[in-house]
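Bumping my old thread because nobody answered last time. Still need a sequence for this structure:
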């Protein structure tokens, strides 16, 4: 009996090793495809003027607080805003609209530069952060991210850092934050939340042009992005990203220009500020 148990133990270990090896190979292939698709090369990425300004704002907020511990001890619910959070479907142009809103309000904007800042501040390769950015990450993926990075990086770590950064930004106010679950992190009374959406065919056409790919490839990309975003919000915040009741304003941009959408959001933000009695210097 002992011999049989030992044999089964060896077989079980061998099977486990085979499963882990296969998972590792699949994750590695996924990583290579991800890096290839995004053409993310840390040595060739050049920050834009907008990204540089955003990173300077983040440093300004941190310097003003002296330490993030001071922020976490504060009464967050009474010390955030005004802010505008813009959630968006892939291909709906949410990032462009957010920039326009920021320009019209004269507020800072936080979007993709969040990833660049985290990469610089915490030493985590931008390519790895991009893999978990608004995406569902399996336990196996988290293990290998931690192993590759060597600094304990995982989707849980990423979300924790997002929370700290969003609270810090909202604490200083006058900021437009794009996606990444900010709607479910920040106190609702500190600002307004908006969701930008459009029909699937419209978004597929936009992505095909933007990325220079076929309609078939664009459709696959958009559908996967929708699934990833929904899973990311559900897994980390226990909410449905697509639920319209979770937002103050929902805008379908199929028949609207980015400027039209930005005007609607800016008007809504100004009305909210006036109604709430918030003082905006």
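Sorry it took so long. Here it is:
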């Amino acid at each position: 009996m002992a011999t049989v148990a030992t044999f089964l133990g060896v077989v079980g270990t061998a099977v486990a090793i085979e499963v882990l090896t296969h998972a590792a190979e699949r994750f590695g292939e996924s990583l290579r495809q991800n890096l290839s698709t995004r053409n993310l090369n840390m040595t060739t990425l050049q920050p834009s003027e907008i990204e540089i300004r955003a990173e300077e704002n983040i440093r300004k907020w941190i310097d003003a607080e002296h330490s993030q511990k001071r922020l976490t001890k504060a009464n967050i619910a009474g010390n955030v805003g005004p802010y505008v959070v813009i959630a968006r479907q892939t291909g709906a142009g949410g990032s462009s609209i957010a920039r326009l809103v920021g320009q019209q309000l004269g507020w800072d904007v936080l979007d993709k530069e969040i990833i660049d800042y985290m990469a610089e501040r915490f030493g985590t390769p931008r390519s790895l952060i991009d893999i978990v950015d608004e995406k569902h990450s399996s336990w196996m993926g988290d293990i290998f991210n931690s192993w590759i990075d060597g600094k304990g990086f995982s989707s849980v770590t990423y979300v924790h850092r997002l929370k700290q950064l969003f609270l810090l930004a909202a604490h200083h106010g006058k900021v437009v934050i794009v996606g990444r679950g900010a709607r479910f992190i920040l106190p609702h009374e500190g600002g307004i939340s908006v969701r930008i959406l459009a029909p699937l065919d419209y978004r597929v056409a936009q992505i095909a042009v933007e990325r220079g790919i076929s309609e078939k490839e664009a459709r696959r990309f958009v559908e996967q992005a929708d699934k990833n975003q929904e899973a990311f919000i559900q897994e980390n915040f226990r909410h449905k990203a697509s639920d319209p009741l979770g937002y103050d304003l929902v805008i379908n941009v199929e028949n609207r220009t980015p400027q039209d959408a930005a005007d609607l959001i800016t008007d809504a933000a100004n009305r909210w500020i006036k109604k709430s009695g918030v003082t905006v210097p």
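The longest strand covers residues 191-197. Let me know if any region looks off to you.
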